[in-house]
Design a protein that fits this description.
By secondary structure, the protein is of the alpha/beta class. Helices cover 38% and strands 27% of the residues. The protein has helices at 17-28, 41-46, 55-63, 68-73, 93-97, 107-121, 170-173, 241-251, 254-259, 303-324, 328-355, 363-378, 380-390, and strands at residues 4-7, 10-13, 33-36, 52-53, 75-77, 80-84, 87-91, 102-104, 125-126, 130-135, 143-148, 151-156, 159-162, 180-195, 205-207, 214-218, 224-231, 265-279, 282-283, 286-288, 294-295. Strand 16 (214-218) and strand 17 (224-231) form a beta hairpin. The longest helix is centred in the last third of the chain and has 28 residues, at 328-355. The radius of gyration is 21 Å and the shape is globular. It binds 8-demethyl-8-dimethylamino-flavin-adenine-dinucleotide and P-hydroxybenzoic acid.
């Protein structure tokens, strides 16, 4: 037994977007949760990550009652640009999908809104919880233990939601024989820079160049987010700002390059690219959601949105269980979530393959890649397939 015994309906591991969104959707439905997070709230908010939300993700934030600031400050984007061979090709998302769009709103801001809503409703979150351990999740009486403010805590619950990201304890707690792992590493990473300067273009630009991929994104009308493909092993110290801006300019088409304004970086980081899926996403009373179960390379802007769609299926299953005594939603969870996950894995892999330079590619591979880009630029059908995936497949 712990020093302190608590009880809740759903114990949520991880206070990233998946854990916080699940907590809020369950709170609105009258279901109790406790969130355990290894880091401090400030640390979670200091991680700069995604910026593109699908309409389905925005609808979930509305359902959770946390979309007011998003609607006031988020930027609606009806299209984005691909840049290669010296020209820009606009993907008219709205025109190609019957009016659908994406919203630019930083993951940090979405996390802040969810944290504030949770604090306001008084639902408990244990930040800086150490030694989080999951027990008895092969039974109907799972438990979570941790060390919090010097006390050993034991939480008895009905279900555990593993929303603790790719380095979390949840999927690591599962017996290896219970999981199938599918993985691909890419031979490069993304070097990201945030700068307080107006974005180079009012829509995103994904550029493919023989020097490597580049992406021009944004957080607001005054804050830009830019990325460069970089080799594995790249050190941030080797990339002073001047080198970053010079390299970015070289990878862009002339029109975009001419509009690019240098500014001091306020953040710089490197992320390796990886595809990963752990199947199934349920084991007894433990449900995995978000990066705990799968990773996509960021090229298709799908990671955060997939975390949200998992949470949608999981919240539906839990609400069905508690409100109507219905087991079918929870029983179908893994299969429903994975069906959507694999489509986003395919899209993210495809968009990564289309736009990056692969160091081990043959001349034939490079010709095929160039032909695919040329086909895309000239075919409305190909652009429509890209657009329908980018705005997000239906839940
Ligand atoms: P997170 O955000 O990693 O949160 C997991 C939380 O669990 C905590 N944790 C633990 N807590 C308790 N005990 C333990 N043992 C724990 N171990 C870990 C962690 O501290 C953390 O707070 O996972 P979540 O919630 O599933 O959310 C997933 C998203 O964060 C991720 O998919 C996206 O950021 C991916 N991503 C993008 N997704 C998009 O949809 N659109 C984008 O434009 C986009 N751009 C990106 C991205 C990811 C990037 N990086 C850095 C990988 C751009 C980049 C550069
Ligand atoms: C971002 O703004 O951080 C961002 C946008 C689009 C992506 C990936 C990251 O595909």
């Amino acid at each position: 037994m712990g020093d302190k015994a608590l009880r809740t309906q759903v114990a949520i591991i991880g206070a990233g977007p998946a854990g916080l969104l699940l907590g809020q959707l369950l709170h609105v439905a009258g279901i109790d949760t406790i969130i355990l997070e290894r880091r401090s709230g400030d640390y979670v908010l200091s991680r700069i990550r995604a910026g593109v939300l699908e309409q389905g993700t925005v609808a979930l934030l509305e359902q959770a009652g946390v979309a007011a600031r998003l609607h006031a400050e988020g930027l609606r984007h009806d299209g984005f640009n691909l840049a290669y061979d010296g020209a820009r090709h606009r993907i008219d998302l709205a025109g190609l999908t019957g009016g659908r769009h994406v919203t630019i709103y930083g993951q940090t801001e979405m996390t802040r809104d969810l944290m504030q809503a949770r604090a306001a409703c008084g639902a408990p979150s244990l930040y800086e919880a150490a030694e989080v351990h999951l027990a008895d999740f092969d039974s109907a009486h799972p438990r979570v233990t941790c060390l919090f403010e010097g006390q050993r805590i034991e939480i008895a619950c009905d279900f555990i939601a593993g929303c603790d990201g790719s380095h979390g304890v949840s999927h690591a707690s599962l017996p290896a024989a219970a999981l199938s792992l599918h993985e691909r590493h890419y031979p490069f990473g993304w070097l990201g820079v945030m700068a307080d300067v107006a974005p180079v273009s009012d829509e995103l630009v994904y550029a493919s160049h023989e020097r490597g991929f580049a992406l021009c994104s944004m957080r607001s009308a005054h804050r830009s987010r830019y990325y460069l493909q970089c080799p594995l092993g790249t050190e941030i110290a080797d990339w002073p700002d001047a080198r970053f801006w010079d390299e970015l300019r070289q990878r862009l088409d002339p029109q975009t390059a001419a509009a690019l304004v240098d500014a001091p970086s306020i953040e710089k980081s490197i992320a390796p690219l990886r595809s990963f899926v752990a199947e199934p996403m349920r084991f007894g009373s433990l449900f995995l959601a978000g990066d705990a179960a799968h990773i996509v390379p960021p090229t298709g802007a799908k990671g955060l949105n997939l975390a949200a769609s998992d949470v949608h299926y999981l919240a539906e299953g839990l609400i069905g269980h508690y409100r109507e005594g219905r087991a079918s939603g929870l029983e179908a969870y893994s299969q429903r979530a994975l069906a959507r996950v694999w489509k986003a894995e395919r899209f993210s892999w495809w968009m990564t393959s289309l736009l990056h330079q692969f160091p081990d590619s043959s001349p034939f591979d490079r010709k095929i890649q160039a032909a695919e880009r040329a086909y895309l630029a000239g075919s409305r059908a190909a652009m429509a397939a890209l657009a329908e995936n980018y705005v997000g497949l239906p839940f």
